[in-house]
């Protein structure tokens, strides 16, 4: 796990990880400082790094030789620190420490629901623009007077985390209560923003029910027609996971 001063440096770290760790790199997770601050605020505990950073990245390797993997990871960490790509980092020494580091990533979903609820968007955006949507959505909610520290503001904060390897971002809006005014600010703005950058409004969880009316923002009529044909071919009676896009 390491702390990074900017999203640009997070991208540099990802490129270096792919170059230096290549075949043993199995995960490269991005977490913004807001997500980690909220996790710590809810559950407490000792933070993995002494200082706070705008971004954190969690790397996991899965090679067949643990000693070899560790040496490559140590060299990578040394290189990115000496070139000031990352500001600080820590390497897990055993299974317990691995579990602890992953808990800061896996605990986000549970912790951000602490205040009442969460609006969630699982999207795919070109890597260069991936985190920009978090800034833009936060600014939009702030300008609408919906985001603040007091209970009269429905929105607690806006955060982003996800998988850099496939440009997959979890855009989450932590709220004290669900509010129609918040929803009007978010939709269809989020989908229009993604469409302009040729991203996908649904990355790894499919469209389901909530997003099925918005599929046109990331798929054209030809592609939608092909999807329907494939669905009909394998499920002519519509009995497999009915009413949902997959």
TrEMBL record:
Any one annotated GO CC term: mitochondrion
Upper taxonomic lineage: Eukaryota, Metazoa, Ecdysozoa, Arthropoda, Hexapoda
Keyword Signal annotated: no
Species, as recorded: Photinus pyralis
The EC number(s) this enzyme carries: 1.1.99.39
Named cofactor requirement(s): FAD
Domain FAD-binding oxidoreductase/transferase type 4 C-terminal: 2-244
Protein name: D-2-hydroxyglutarate dehydrogenase, mitochondrial
Domain of life: Eukaryota
Family indicated by similarity: Belongs to the FAD-binding oxidoreductase/transferase type 4 family.
């Amino acid at each position: 796990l390491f702390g990074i001063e900017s999203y640009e440096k997070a991208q540099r770290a990802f490129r270096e990880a792919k170059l230096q760790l290549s075949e043993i790199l199995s995960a490269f997770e991005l977490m913004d400082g807001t997500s980690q601050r909220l996790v710590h605020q809810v559950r407490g505990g000792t933070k993995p790094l002494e200082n706070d950073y705008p971004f954190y990245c969690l790397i996991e390797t899965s090679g067949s030789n643990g000693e070899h993997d560790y040496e490559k990871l140590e060299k990578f960490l040394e290189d990115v620190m000496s070139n000031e790509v990352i500001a600080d980092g820590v390497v897990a020494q055993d299974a317990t420490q691995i579990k602890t580091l992953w808990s800061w990533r896996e605990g986000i979903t549970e912790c951000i629901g602490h205040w009442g609820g969460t609006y969630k968007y699982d999207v795919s955006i070109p890597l260069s623009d991936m985190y920009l949507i978090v800034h833009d959505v936060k600014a939009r909610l702030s300008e609408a007077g919906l985001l603040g520290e007091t209970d009269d503001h429905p929105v607690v904060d806006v955060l982003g985390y996800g998988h850099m390897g496939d440009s997959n971002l979890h855009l989450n809006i932590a709220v004290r209560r669900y509010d129609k005014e918040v929803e009007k600010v978010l939709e269809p703005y989020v989908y229009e923003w993604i469409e302009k950058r040729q991203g996908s409004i649904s990355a790894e969880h499919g469209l389901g029910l909530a997003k099925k009316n918005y599929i046109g923002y990331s798929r054209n009529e030809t592609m939608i027609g092909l999807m329907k044909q494939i669905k009909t071919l394998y499920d002519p009676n519509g009995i497999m996971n009915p009413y949902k896009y997959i």
